[in-house]
Structures are given as structure tokens and as C-alpha cells.
Design goal:
mainly beta, 4-stranded antiparallel beta sheet, single chain
Length: about 100
């Protein structure tokens, strides 16, 4: 699967939709344990939510993987958790700004 910046994908098992922000070294992006598909292409089979991959996604949040460098933005939330090559993506948090005394 080619992860180009700006490419939109949707989950086969829930309502989640994401946009690739940073492609990194690529890999197999999944949501809820099933591979994601290009937006509006529809499910490719009988995909079901896999136990342990049900952490959910939040609207407007970025998810990343340190190993591959991939970063995606959630544009529609759902109940499935994002992963790449079997590794769960981490919710990216804002960097702390230095205090101004």
C-alpha cells in the first residue's frame, strides 16, 4: 500500500477515515485489525473488528508510528484503533512550550 501525503483512507470495520500527513517508510495501514482502503472504494470482503484493535480514533487528532515515521490525521472518528504492520499507532500530543517567566 502506497502512503502518499494527502491520500485519504477509510476503515473496513468502522466509520474511521484518515488522511496521510507523513508517508514515512510505508507499510500496511490498518484500522480495527483490517487493512484500510482508499476513500469511497468500499469494503473488500468480510472484515470484522479484531479484539484488541478497538481503542477508537478521535476527530482531528494525529496518530504516528516512530518506527516507520508514518503520521495520519483522523478526519472521521470510529471505534477501530489504527495500526501499521501490526504496531498500534500512538496519539500524537502537542509539544510543551517553554515557560516565559
Amino acid at each position: 500500500m502506497e502512503l502518499k501525503p494527502g491520500t485519504r483512507f477509510e476503515s473496513q470495520v468502522c466509520e474511521t477515515e484518515v488522511v496521510v500527513v507523513k508517508p514515512g517508510s510505508g507499510g500496511e495501514l490498518a484500522c480495527g485489525g483490517a487493512l484500510v482502503v482508499p476513500l469511497n472504494s468500499g469494503p473488500t470482503g468480510d472484515a470484522a473488528l479484531v479484539e484488541g484493535h478497538d481503542g477508537g480514533t478521535m476527530l482531528g487528532k494525529r496518530y504516528s508510528d516512530e518506527t516507520s515515521g508514518v503520521e495520519v490525521l483522523c478526519v472521521k472518528p470510529g471505534i477501530g484503533a489504527l495500526s501499521i504492520d501490526g504496531r498500534m499507532l500512538e496519539l500524537k500530543t502537542a509539544k510543551a512550550l517553554p515557560s516565559s517567566d
